[in-house]
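step: validate -> pass
step: tokenize input -> pass
step: predict -> running
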Amino acid sequence: MSAFIIRRILQMIPTLFGVMLLVFTLFTLVGGDPSLVLAGKHLTPDVLANIRAQLGLDQSLPQQFWIFVKQVLTLDFGTSWSTQQPVADIIGSRVGPSLTLTGAMLVVDLLIAIPLAALVAYFRGGLTDHIVTIACTVAMSVSALVYIIAGQYFLAFKMGWFPVRGWGMPSGSISSSTCRCRC
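step: predict -> pass
step: emit ->
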């Protein structure tokens, strides 16, 4: 078992290197020059050179790739250009809500998958097996965004499980006498 784990870890290294090379190449070729975006209206040769030096864009591509690899391996994602916060802090602040949604979806998936798997196992090779397999394949092919939008539509608007007026306020809480708009 330990040989299997070691073999998998060793196989992970070239895969990780290939993904980093692909991401770096795509950002370099398709992403354009970020220093032009960051300079904005204050585009002068001095400002452009200063931004390129700060980002390391004045170095050769192999040196830029080496900097990128070091940053990925040390989990140093730098600072956000728009908010000026460390990217690791931004990601860290969103881990909790993401895990909450992921945990809830895992429970829903298990509540659906286990009975379907038992059904398919019981009717193995039959018509039910084929229908459930096709239905699951189609369901997995649909984007999660479609399920989110459809769930909001049916649960909030059709079934009335969630408030739909005034950003979470219960219906009827805003009357025309309290509204100060001139409509």
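step: describe -> Helices lie at 2-29, 34-39, 45-55, 61-73, 87-93, 95-122, 127-141, 144-158.
step: cleanup -> pass
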